[in-house]
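Components:
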Amino acid sequence: MGTVVALGGQVGGAKLAEGLYRLRGAKLAVIVNTGDDYEYLGLPISPDVDTMLYALAGIADANKGWEPAGESYGCHGMLTRLGGPVDVPLGDRALALQLLRADALRTERSPTEITLELAQRLGIEARVLPMSDDPVRTIVHTESGAISFHDYFMDLKCEPAVRSFQYGGADEARLSDAALDALHAPDLEAVVLVPCNPYHTLLPMLAVNGMRAALRKRGAPVIAVSPIIGGRALQGSAAKMMQELGREVSARAIAMEFHKLIDGIVIDSADQALAEGIRASGIEVLAVPTFMRNADDRLKLARAVLDFARAVRMRREIAVDA
Amino acid sequence: MGTVVALGGQVGGAKLAEGLYRLRGAKLAVIVNTGDDYEYLGLPISPDVDTMLYALAGIADANKGWEPAGESYGCHGMLTRLGGPVDVPLGDRALALQLLRADALRTERSPTEITLELAQRLGIEARVLPMSDDPVRTIVHTESGAISFHDYFMDLKCEPAVRSFQYGGADEARLSDAALDALHAPDLEAVVLVPCNPYHTLLPMLAVNGMRAALRKRGAPVIAVSPIIGGRALQGSAAKMMQELGREVSARAIAMEFHKLIDGIVIDSADQALAEGIRASGIEVLAVPTFMRNADDRLKLARAVLDFARAVRMRREIAVDA
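Structure:
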C-alpha cells in the first residue's frame, strides 16, 4: 500500500477523496485548489480546502457538502440585521475554522502549516495541502468583462458566458514543499485528479509552478475521474463552461483537457461508448458507476480508481520490460 | 429637554442608559468604558460597548444583558471540537458585531466612528461613544500578581483578592472629541454615572485625559447612581472588591469614590439611613427604588435621576442667586 495523492477540490472531489482516505488513511495526501480563495470581512476563506476538511473529518453535511453538518446562521442573521455584508452565507461552524485560520495567518505561519494543523485538530490523518503557499486567484473572462471566480460565482451566479480563464499569480506561485514531497514519495502509488470543475479547480492547480513537472515525472500513474456523466455535470457549472468554451460536453473532452498529463481516466458506465475514442488518444479508460450517493459509493469508486491505477502501472511496466 | 450624558458600562449601567434613552432619544450620549477591552482570535472585543449597544437597540437578552437575545453558540461549539481557544464564550450573533468592528478597524477608522456606525446600523439614535480612541487597559493588582482585567475575570473568575487597580495607557489616552463635545453641549442637562463597578468601569473613565476636567467644568449636575444596595452589589464583583480594598461596602463609600466630582447620588430606598451622612460631605442624595427588574423600572429610575438632577441644578442656581 503506497502513497496516494489526490488533486482537486469541490464537493464531488472531496467525496472521492473521502473514499480514498478510508482506503489509505495517513498514506493519502490531498492537494487542494486555492484559486477560488477570497476574503470576507477580513477573513481568508478557502472554500475547496474547507470542503475537503469537512469531508475527510466526516462532518460534512450530507446534502450541502461545502458546509459542516448541523450548520447554523446566527452570525449571518445578525449581519443581515446590521445591514451586511451578507453576500457570503457563512455559517457559524464554518466561522470557527475561518477565525482560527485568520488568527494563525497573523502569526506568519504558512497556509500549508495552518491547513495541516486544522486537519489535525479535526482528527484527519491524511495530509490536506493547499496547492501553494503563494496566492493564486482565478479570473473568469466573460462576455461582460473579467471578474474573480468568487464574484462570478456569488454575485453573478455563474450567469455570464465564459470566454477564458486566467490563473492570476500562478506563474509566480510555487507548489508547496509538502505537495512536492507527496508527489515525490518513493512509494507513490497513484495520482488521482478527483472529479471537479477543470477550469477553476484543476487547471489552476496545474498552472502552479512545478505541478506539471512533478506530474510528468510519472512516479506513478496519473488517473483522472470525469466530472461529466452522460454529457452533464452532476453539480456545478462544468458543463455550462465547457459549452461556452466550445468544448464538447463529455468525458472525452475532459480527457482531452488533461491530454499528455494523465495515463488513464475513469468515466461513468453511461459513457462506455466513449472509451474507444479516448483510448485512441493514448489514454487508458475504465468505465464504472461514478455517481457517489453515499459512503459506500465513495469507497467503491475509490477502490475502482486505485485498482485501475495498479492495472495501468502493471501494463506500463510490462511495456517497459518487453 | 437638554442633552444628557451617561458615563459607565456593564449590564446595570446599560439598563439605566436604556431608561435615559427612552426619555431623551437622540439627546442622550453614552460614554462607555473601554478599559476591559481585549482581543480574542484577533477580534477586538469591547464588552461594555457591546452591552450598551444591545441594551439601547432593544436586543439585549433579558437575563444575560451582555449578549443579544436568542444568542446561539455554533461557532463556539465548533471551536471546542477544534481544540479551542474557547475561554471566551462568544456567541454567533455577537460575532457579527466583532467581525464588523475588526473589519472596520483594518480600514483605519477610529473606534468612535466605528461604534457610532454600529449604533446607527442597530437603529440607535443616541450617541454611543467609547471613552477614548486610544487604548486603555485596566490591570488588576492582586495578592498573586498583576493581571489584565479580562484575564482576572475570565481565567481567575475574580477570585484573587484585589489590592489596587491600574489604568494602563489612561495617562496618554485622550477623551474622544465626540465625548468632549457631548460633555460641552450648551444644553447639557445632566451627567449621570450609571450604576456599575467603580474600579474597573467608572474610575478608568475618570482616569482618561480630559475627563475630570470636563466634569469639573460643571456644565450641569453630575449625578451618580449607586451600584450597591443594602451593602451588596446586585451583580458583579463590586462589593467583593470594595471589601478587599478596605472600603465599607455601602452606597456611602460609592459616594466617597466620586467625592468632589459628583453633585448628587441616587441610592436605594433600602439605604435611606445613609442619606444624612452622605449629605454631610456636601453631596445631595435621592433615595428611591433602584433595582431594575424590567423596562418600567428602568424608565422610572431614569426619570427619577433626571428629576433629581433638575432639582440639584435649581438649588445650585438659587444658591448662586442668593
